[in-house]
Amino acid sequence: MARGLARVNIPETLGNEFSAYADQVSTRIRRLKTCAEFLFELPINDTPVGTLICTPQGVGKYLVESLNQLTQLKFIDVSNKFQTLATYNRMVEISGNLNSLAIILAEIHHE
């Protein structure tokens, strides 16, 4: 049963219900795919960040290329390592989208 603005029960077809489920799940998956790109950004560099003390210049690029060859994935060395290391925004976004998808799937299961 769907509820309108007046909070009155309105008959709903099974097709409408599954259409809503499909749309919710596909939206979450689309957002997760967008977020997943951020997982390939690696702030690999030197210590302390950005100063080139202790490691030769270009070590981040070299390590990323080596990881790409070993894993057959497409990691990238981010240009602003301070921003990547200082915040958890991307992980929070991914976690939120995974949590939202889990809730949607649980709702589908319970109905």
From TrEMBL:
Q: Which Gene3D superfamilies match?
A: Fumarase/aspartase (Central domain)
InterPro entries in UniProt: Fum_hydII, Fumarate_lyase_N, L-Aspartase-like
Q: Name one Pfam family in it.
A: Lyase_1
Fumarate lyase N-terminal domain residues are 11-108
> Alphabetically, which GO biological process terms does the record hold?
fumarate metabolic process
Extract the GO molecular function terms from the UniProt entry: fumarate hydratase activity
Q: Which PANTHER family match?
A: ASPARTATEAMMONIA/ARGININOSUCCINATE/ADENYLOSUCCINATE LYASE
Q: What is this protein called?
A: Fumarate lyase N-terminal domain-containing protein
Could you read off the lineage of the organism from its UniProt record? Eukaryota, Metazoa, Spiralia, Gnathifera, Rotifera
